[in-house]
Amino acid sequence: MTPASTARQDDDACWREAARLRREHRGWIVIWLAPENCYRAYRRLPGARRDTALSAATPAEMSDLIGQAEQATARPAWRGPGAR
User: Fold this and answer.
1) Does residue 82 form part of some domain?
2) pLDDT in tens, 34-58
3) I need a labelling partner for 81 at 20 to 30 A (CA). Which of 31, 37, 40, 73 fits?
4) Would 26 be classed as within a structural domain?
5) What is the CATH number of the domain that holds 50?
6) What is the C-alpha to C-alpha distance for residues 36 and 73, in angstroms, rounded to an integer?
């Protein structure tokens, strides 16, 4: 196999991973940026004034970052006056 064909296969695998991340994290736009060798994810999260943009080198790292971003914007349940 030539280096170019190996690189193409790697790039294809990365795009498949980006598609898997989109399926697993509905509402997120996830792409593979081959020239930068990283994944990018975008979404306007509830309460945010701007879109959230994330970058990661691996699909696992991207999944973790998406989870962290979603947790950071999760609103705590209202418990009412005097609740602890």
Assistant:
1) no
2) 999 999 999 988 877 788 999 999 9
3) 73
4) yes
5) 3.30.160
6) 28
